[in-house]
Fold:
Amino acid sequence: MNPVNTLSRRRATLALACAAGLGLAAPMAMAQAPADGPIKLIVPFTPGTGIDLIARTVGPRLAERLKRPVVVENRAGASGNIGTEAVVRAPADGSTLLVSVNTLVMNRSLYPQLGFDPVKDLAPIALTSWGQLILVTHPRSGMASATDLVAAARKAPGKLNYASPGVGTPHHLSMELFKTTAQVFLTHIPYRGTGPAMTDLLGGQVDAMFLPIHVALPQVRAGKLVALAIGSDKRHPLLPDVPTLAEAKAGNVNVDMWYGIFAPRSMPAAQVAQLNREINDILASEEVRKAFSAQGMDPATATPEAFGQLVARDADRWAGLIKIQGIKAE
Structure:
């Protein structure tokens, strides 16, 4: 065998291998977002919500850390499903992220024909915070505690009613969980948004409602609403005199809402880990803590794995309630 020809063949083989390697690497390089390209934080609800606050608080700080523009985009509609689907269908290159709340997992059972799975088709990036719901009534109801509400509901099943911003919202499902636990029945009156529901609650047209602390607090302090209990494991510093549902002997019910950030499912693990580190550092700042606390939210952090486990457990919990109560989306 001619050694020159053998060497030539080896060089040719090596060249082909390198070319093939470059060919395989090229698509991977193309899958990465440009280092200076913008990142979109999709908020699947209207401006002014707690989720929107998180996005607009974290966004500028994330931009500083990554040296990339970060823009917040509100894509409201269909109980958050429109914005969620936009992220599910987006390239998994780190350029499109979802900021959401536990409505995400509720929708999985409420809308079985979505065409995507809000749990399996998203990669958990970071838990950002927890929010609490409080059970409230209007002063003319004569009720001063959750115990009073339970007693009145048992005395006349179905006579009392409660409001929610719509079927499948955390406000709605939290009350359904409370009803199941306390073994009482209140008639559900769904509204199209928190505003109209609040108007009728303040006017005494409806008897009770679960509301986020930051929404209810001004009305409670003004004496326009009565806080009956908080749906959490512990009292909240903003309303230290309001007992938990368990303390009020109205059922051991925890309806805390988690908030977090997600990416399309197949986002590379290295990018997930980097974003988790950066966001956790942002959440640790005193400035962010104060911004969140003013809205009744408590900053929280977790690894992507731990956050994913939380999301999966919560999905199962609400799926069970939705099935038992036969709740269907409008």
Summary: The chain is about 45% helix and 20% strand. The longest helix spans residues 3-31.
